[in-house]
Structure formats: C-alpha cells, structure tokens
Amino acid sequence: MTAITTPGNSPQNRTSTEIVRAGEPSDQAAPTGQKPRRTVNSARRAAAGKAKVKPEKPKLMTPVEYAQHVLSDERKAKLHKTDHLSGRCIFYAGGDYQYASESTRGKMEYIVKHGGTLAPTFDPEVVTYIITDTTARPTLRALGLKSLTEIPQHIPTVKWSWAISVVSRAQKAADHVPNQILQREDTLINFDFMHAAFAERIDAGSGWQKITSGRAKGGAALQRLKKEEDKGKSKSDVGEGGPSNGDLSIISCPGTVVPSTHDNPSVDASEKIDPSGSLDPPGDEKSNDPLAEFYAEAKAEQDAGDTHNRDKDETEDEASPVKAKPAKRGWTCDKKEPQLPTKECANQDVVDALEQLMELHKAKSSEDDRWRVFSYGKCIRALKNHPKRIKSLSQARAIRGVGEKTAMKIMEIIETGGLKRIQYENTEDVEATKIFQGIYGVGRNTAFAWYANGCRTLDDIKMCKGGIKVSAVQEIGIKFYDDINTRIPRAEVQEIFDRIKSVALDMDPKLFIEVMGSFRRGKADCGDIDVLITRDTADGKTHAGFLSKLLDELHELDILTEDLSVPDDYSDLELCYRGLCMLPGLPGARRRRIDILCVPWECRGGALLYYTGDDIFNRAMRMKANVLGYSLNQRGLYAGVVRDPKDRRVKLHGGSIIASETEEEIFKVLGVPWQEPHERVRG
Hints:
Layout: H1 40-52, H2 63-70, H3 73-79, E1 89-93, H4 102-113, E2 117-118, E3 129-132, H5 136-143, E4 157-158, H6 160-174, H7 179-188, H8 218-231, H9 249-252, E5 272-273, E6 279-280, H10 292-304, H11 348-362, H12 367-385, H13 393-397, H14 404-416, H15 420-425, H16 428-436, H17 444-452, H18 458-462, H19 472-479, H20 481-484, E7 488-489, H21 490-507, E8 511-515, H22 517-520, E9 525-526, E10 529-535, H23 546-556, E11 560-565, E12 575-581, E13 592-598, H24 604-612, H25 615-627, E14 631-633, E15 636-639, E16 642-644, E17 647-653, E18 656-659, H26 663-670
Parallel strand pairs: 1-2, 1-3, 3-4, 10-13
Antiparallel strand pairs: 5-6, 7-9, 8-10, 11-12, 12-13, 14-15, 15-18, 16-17
Helix pairs in contact: 2-4, 11-12, 16-17, 24-26
C-alpha cells in the first residue's frame, strides 16, 4: 500500500528552518488559521506571566484619612445609591489601632451609600450619631475623649445594627410593607435605645423620649398593654392585629425594625429641645415616656455597679447595695484611707491567691491584662482592710472594688482552697517571660522576643540561645538576679541611706537629702532605695556638678558597686543615677537597687510628692489637677495649661508653675486635705 501522508505534517516536507526546538522562540509567523504550537516551557511562561499580574493592594489609610477619601466628590457620587440615612451625621469607630481595616472601610462606604453624612472626626456640634463596633476605651480614643460622660447627652452611641435597622426599615417602606405593621411598630416606641452600645448611655439622645407617630402615644399604648394584662385578656388594644400580652418582641428585640426620629417629620411643633438636646414635650413628661420607670431602676443598678440578682435567702446584713443609691465617691486622693491592720488578715488565703493571679497578668503585654492588674490591686487592698472573714458571694460583692467575677473567684478560693484560673493563666510562655522580666533592663517585649527565640530559663539567656543579644546592663541584672528581686528590709534601707547622707553632708552641709518611695510611706520592706538630693540656693550656689563627686566617693567606700545608668551631663540640676549598692564590710551582703535623683531647689515639693507615691494616689492627684484645669508632674503644679479639645492628653501650651516648693501648697491649691506619706497608701 502507498503511504499517504498529510503534506503539512510530513517530515519530508518540513524544511530545516521550520524545525524549531521546544522552548526556543521563532521569528517565523504561524500559518494563517493554524494555532501556534504550545510546549511545556511556553505553558509555564504563560502561567508565570499571569501570576505576576497581582491585584494592587489598597493604600494604607487611617480611619480619618479613609473617611475623607470616601467623602471626596468623585467617590461620594459613585457610592451614593439611596437616602435611607439622610439627615444624619454619623461618626463611626471601628476600633482600628492605626489603619482602617477592610471592615471599617466597608461600613464607612455603607453610610455614604445610603445617604448618611460621614464625619471624619468627632465634632459634638455636628455629629448626631456615634456608631461603634468596639468597647469603651477604643471608642473614647477615636473620639478624643476620656470618659463616656463627656459625650453630649443628645448624641446616642449605638451599635452597627442600628444602621442596618434604619436602612432595612426604609427599604420595607419602599417595598410597600402592610401599613398596619408599620403603624403598630410606630405606636410602641422608637428604637435607638435598643441598639445602645453602652449601658450607661442607654437613655442618650431624644429618640426614646419621642413619639414617632403623631396618631398614637407610646406611653398610653404601654398603659393599655398593662391594663389588658391585669384584666387577663389575651389581646392588646394597641391596634388591629396587635401583639398578645406575651409578644413584646417588638420592644425587646434589637432586630425589630422601628423608625428613627429623623424618618417622621410630623413631630409636634410645640415640643421644644432643652440645652442638652433632649426633647421636652408639653405636659407630663413621664406620661410620654413609656420606659421612664424602668430607666430609673436601671440607672440605680448601674450606679450601684451591680445588675445581677441576689440569692433570695440572704440575711438583712447581707443586703444588696442596689437598694440604696451609693454616695458620690469623689476623688481617691481626697479621702484618707484606713491603714492596714497590724493583726493577721482575716482573708489572707484569698489575698495570696489573687496576688499570685495578679503577678501572672503583670507578665503579659495586652491592654486588658494591664487593667486586670489595676483592678486586682484595688481589690486586694480592700480585702486586706476587710475586718471579717468572707462567707458568702453577697458579702464579697458588697466590698468596694470587688466586681461580680472577682467575687466568684473569692468564693472559689474560700470553698476549694485554690483557684483554677491560676493554672489556666500560668502557661509556659507566661512562666518564662515572668522570669525574664525579673532581669534589670528587660521589659515585656524583650521577654517575649527571647521566648520566641527558644529561651526558657536564665541559663538559656546566659548562653544567648537562639542568637539573642544581652546588653552589659542586662548581664549585671542576670548576675545579681536573686539580690535585685529580693525585698529590702526597712532597717537595711535606713542604714544605707544614713551612710550616703553622712557622706553627702560632709561634702556640702547645705544639701537637702531625703529618702523617698515606699520607705517614706512607712513600708516594712522596699523594692529599691530612692534618694532625693537638692540644695538651698539662698547663698547663690546650687548642687550643679555635686552628683559626680558624690558617686566617686560612694564607689571609693564600696557603698556603690555597679552603675546601671549614669547622667550625660553632671552640670544639670535635674539628674537621675541608677545603680547597685550594698552595706560594705558585711559578709554575704546583697546588692540592692538604688536611684539617686537631683532636682532644682524650687521643685523639691513636686518631686517629693511624685516620688513618694503610691501610684494610685499620684494618679488621682494628677487626674484631679487635670479636671480643675491644672497640670501636675514631678516638677510641680502648673496653671494656664491649654489642651487640645479633641485630645486632652495633648498640651498646646504648658502653662506656668504656681506651686512646687512644698507638698503642702500643692495639696492646698488642689483642695486635697493634707496627708502624711503613710496616709497616701491606696494600692
């Protein structure tokens, strides 16, 4: 048979120029109508070419920047679809730490899409709603405020579900939902409070006080519901086809869609708005507020800090603090705290367990753990002062500074002798990083970085396991780890200070030298030794340059042994030295941490107040000064301070010092009763 071949595919008919090696490019064009031959390498190149075309990542923007971007004319016109949120100026807080997340961007676009006015920054004169998807602290940070009480009462703080409900409600109306359903929902009550983000602001805004329909009063509707319930009827007269007695889902369910006050223009013109922004309708205000009695009760419970039910078998002496509204607490620094009892604490086992749990939280780096440490500190202080053994949950809960969860932990300790939470929190990373943070010069971040590099013990740190780097100061901290982390008996502090004071006064008799910190507060032992040095300038001389000479002399006497941090310029009047010291000539003497601080003579009062503490007392003093329009730091009390209204932590003008030479004058200006150092213990 004759071999029949296709001319185009026959090897005999292919010239040498037509034979191209796989993977090599060819200058010859493919015949018309014939697809180019694909090889393995060409397929790979094509795939690689496609892989290189990646979608461009969105530009990083802060929430403020992205809000401004959304509000640009071009972007706004592109997004706008409906007017369901028109008439509302909304500030959105998504809890973003630095850059706007994808969720935050989407929700900002949603607000603009449905006709809302998006506020990039919080301006109480313009904003009508605050929407938040986070807790109080991040929300306040975004607002530039310090407390929820600083938010004007006429501005509600609501959750994102509020925006969804408003849009859904408007869409229902557009889709011709039966009028009797909308009418029934209008009659009951406006719904802003159902989406309240924070319990203490549940009554913020005027929506819950106002009747959304001009044809029915919410208060009267609720009264009719109650009357029908008393009569035992199964139906309400709220409207035709209205809900039964037990069907209160329209009021209680946050998912129910009820109109906003902005949706209905038929508000009685005789209603007026008070300076706080709330509506004040004529006549009896309570009759128009169907939830007035419930708000009063909720407020009382909120103020008392206890919204949980009590056991029915509680005795009278264990009565719930909710029954009587507590007196205003005022500032922590204004009231002298009772001193710790000298006899054994009645709840020492509880104190020990909570202190152990507090130390575990100290080793962690999150913001929540920092606040837990603060809360446990207040609770432990209250328990140490409590004169009786705690026997019930209600007794524990009644102690100031003890919350519901802490009270449950206290009862677990009392009933079982232990606390499971300690085992839960005491993980390997916490245990290791807690040890590392005992090294001088090591903070949380460094400790967790060392753990991430495989270090688990001090020996691992000494061997620089995982390639970690240890500074010279940290090496000193490792070498004297046990000494530095051992409390110093009061007698030893006194003896070391007496020797330093004697040397200093021999060099300059006009020096003012004082020991500060927990020693000055009367503690039985101290973590370190704090010494303050200054000099009376009446003779025209100062202590400039004195610290260098003193340090040299103390090193010669073997009182100072190692330097941890030395000043750059000894001629300054404000200096800080950190090092290790010991009692010379004493066998087995431990190295002790010491700080020597030099301050200008006119600032000695502010420095004494600041470095005496304790921390909670100092924080209360600074906060009160801030609220009164002053600023308090280690140099003294300043007046005429100008702060940024959007972030009061930012000073636009530092002001001028008005009290600093004595502690007494600072107390007097702030209206704080004088308290000796041992009376300032709060934590």
